[in-house]
Amino acid sequence: MIPPLADARLTITALERHDVRALPALYRATPGFFAAYGVPLDERLDAAVAAQWQRCHDAMATHQLLALRRADAAALIGVIEVRHAAPTAGAVLLWMLVVQSRQRQGYGQAALALLETWLVRQAAVDRLCALGGDNPEGHTFLELQGFHRTNDRAPLPVGSGEADIWSW
User: Fold this and answer.
1) The three-state (H, E, C) secondary structure of 90-129, written as one string
2) Are 39 and 161 in contact (CB under 8 A)?
3) Which of 9, 78, 135, 160 could form a disulfide with 68 if both were Cys (CB 3.0 to 4.6 A apart)?
4) Which CATH number fits the domain that encloses residue 111?
5) pTM over cut 0.90
6) How crowded is residue 2: how many other Cβ atoms within 10 Å of its Cβ?
7) Residue 74 pLDDT
8) 3-class DSSP assignment, residue 159
9) What is the pLDDT of residues 9-48, one digit of tens each?
10) How many domains does the chain have?
């Protein structure tokens, strides 16, 4: 399990049950990602978010849902789903969403750096992967972080679609 991580800009902690009610608003504030996969941003999203949290909670040994917050504020600015031993043993698959109003401000890069450092040094992960949605800006972000697209796909954490796996 990933412990709380922090730097001068942000904190990453386990997403608690009481935080789940903030996720639909976070997801609705980033409509482009979900629209590309046909995820409805209506009341069905609330049920999909609850299912995402429950899936991670029930499989804590292999899945973790993390809250991303600015260091000086309590409000969620992003969420990260971590799947251990995915897509293969020794690998970790990340899905990260930073709310649209906070993108291009270094939060995603800082979050990835914190996670990478902990995962590689403490959890002996030998392959870091990320889900890259149908989102050119997300692809550019992943490329700038040293990831490359693979021919593999994995299910999205919310909804019923799939996305490309990017590997580092």
Assistant:
1) CEEEEEEEECHHHCCCCHHHHHHHHHHHHHHHHCCCCEEE
2) yes
3) 78
4) 3.40.630.30
5) no
6) 19
7) 84
8) coil
9) 999 999 888 888 888 888 878 766 666 666 666 777 778 7
10) 1
- Structural domain harbouring 12: 5-167
- For residues 13 and 4, the answer to whether their CB atoms sit within 8 Å is yes
For residues 106 and 165, give the distance between their C-alpha atoms in angstroms, rounded to a whole number.
22
Cβ-based neighbours of 131, under 8 Å, separated by 6 or more = 93, 94, 95, 154, 156, 157, 163, 164, 165, 166
From residue 166, how far is each of 10, 127, 129, 146, 161 by CA, in Å? Answer: 24, 10, 5, 10, 16
Lay out the sheet containing 76-84: strands in order across. Answer: 5-6, 10-14, 63-70, 76-84, 91-98, 127-132, 162-167, 148-155
Cα(83)–Cα(94) distance, integer angstroms:
6
